[in-house]
Amino acid sequence: MNENKPQPKRGTPDFQLLILTLLLVGFGLVMVFSSSSSLTIASKVNDALYFAKRQFMWAVIGGFFMFIAMNIHYSKYKKLFMPIFIVTIIMLILVPYIGEVRNGARSWFGIGSLGVQPTELAKIATILYLAALITKKGERMRDLKKGFMPVMLIVGVVAGLIMMQPDLGSCLILVATCGLIIYAGGASMKHILGSITLLIVGASLVLGMNAAIKSISPADPSVSVEKNYKVGRIEAFLDPFEDPEGTGYHLIQSLTAIGQGGLTGAGFGQSVQKLHYLPNPYNDFIFAVIGEEFGFIGTTIFLLLYLYFIWRGILVSLRCPDPFGTLVGIGIMGLIAIQAFINIGGVTQTIPLTGVTLPFISYGGSSLLVMMFSMGIVLSISRESNKPAVTQEYIKSKKDYRGISSV
Fold first, then answer.
1. Which end of the chain is more exposed for a tag (fewer CB within 10 A), N or C?
2. What is the C-alpha to C-alpha distance for residues 373 and 124, in angstroms, rounded to an integer?
3. Dihedral of the CA atoms 245, 247, 250, 256 (nearest 10)?
4. Helices 15-41 and 50-70 meet at what angle, rounded to 10?
5. Do residues 161 and 93 touch, judged by C-beta distance below 8 A?
6. What pLDDT does residue 109 have?
7. Angle between helices 323-347 and 365-385 (to 10 degrees)
8. CA dist 392 to 13, 230, 321, 406, Å?
9. Is the Cα dihedral 120, 180, 310, 260 positive or negative?
10. Nearest to 368 by CA among 10, 12, 24
11. Where are the alpha helices (DSSP H) in 217-284?
12. How close are the terminal C-alpha atoms of the chain, in Å?
């Protein structure tokens, strides 16, 4: 190609992906209202719109940041990723000491009645860091010492800081997302499998030593409660009906809600399980409310829409002519897919419960804000592949990852 030839202007954002994002956010607002209105009326708040209004506020702020990110060229994050990552690390270091405890984890910075969760920022910050680092290393990613180990060190540091809170669910999501980016970035499969093996062995040794130390040390009531809580989730996953009034209660209520939905559902706003049966029906268990109110047909339509949204985002990322943009897009869409699977899998007894939000749907300001900002980056990436004058020669010159075509 002629390098002096003027490059075409940036294209338009992917219209389908933008509309799908707004549809999911809108549906999330509707479901937050449906799942929380009865509870807030019966509480001291006495406002059916209490959670819906707060979620709408975060949606507006998130929309503002999404449209800003959409109009910033994604390549700018090659320079911005370091300050974002440093701020994130500082927040993760501080939150176990000065943060607020919510749902058994010290993961929040309280700002009045609102809260900010640094873990959510850590997800996108780590994605940007890894994408920039892997792009810079290029073919050296297949080298264990010069490529793979430095990248894994970054992942280990962030995952370790998140576990200090402790937040196992977010840690698993982060590690799985990073693994996807590292694989897409060209790392050797034997290195990846070796890391997984070391992780399992290391975790087993740490847990074994921890159990041995606790067995000979004076009992700590708080540690005992935490241990029983984690073990209870595994036991509930294996057989929730063994302890229906204890460890299995939440999962039984979730399965009951989904079962009562039947084929067509009870109707919008008609869920019974959200009335003080399901814990946090507007947050962790919002999918169970969707299942009860919209039934099998409505839930299937929702899941198909969600899957198409993820597929569209991955397709847009693969079409990007820049490896950095491709890795960032795959990381963000992989993050959404993995977190959605963990949330839905937990409430349907597919996997053990971990207490994470359903992206764009569950109540949670930090999660919604970061997810919408992240989608702004993906939409910025889509503008690069939608240039009006992208030639076949330019497309063919794109560096390919894993032998997957970019178009």
1. N
2. 9
3. -60
4. 160
5. yes
6. 66
7. 140
8. 20, 54, 11, 11
9. negative
10. 24
11. 221-238, 249-261
12. 19
Find all residues with CB under 8 Å of 159, minimum gap 6, and list them.
171, 174, 175
DSSP 8-state assignment for residue 148 = I
Q: What is the pLDDT of residues 336-363, one digit of tens each?
A: 999 999 999 988 888 887 778 899 999 8
Distance between CA atoms of 394 and 9, rounded to whole angstroms?
15
Largest CA distance in the chain: 74
185: left (phi over 0), alpha (psi -120 to 50) or beta: alpha
Q: For tokens 């053990």, what's the residue?
A: 352
pLDDT tier at 160, thresholds 50, 70, 90? confident
d(CA 387, CA 12): 7
Looking at residue 328, its amino acid is V
Please answer whether residues 20 and 305 qualify as being in contact, where contact means their C-beta atoms are separated by less than 8 angstroms.
Answer: yes
Residues 324 and 85: their CA atoms lie apart, in Å, by: 17
Residue with tokens 């209660």: 249
Q: What angle do CA 337, 386, 27 make, to 5 degrees?
A: 40
The structure tokens 């290029």 sit at 138
DSSP class of residue 187 equals -
Looking at the DSSP bridge assignments, the partners of residue 117 are none
Q: Are 128 and 330 in contact (CB under 8 A)?
A: no
User: Please, which residues have CB within 8 angstroms of residue 342's CB and are 6 or more apart in sequence?
Assistant: 169, 172, 173, 351, 354, 356
- Per-residue model confidence (pLDDT) at position 61: 93
| CA–CA gap between residue 299 and residue 5 (Å, rounded) | 50
Length of the chain equals 407
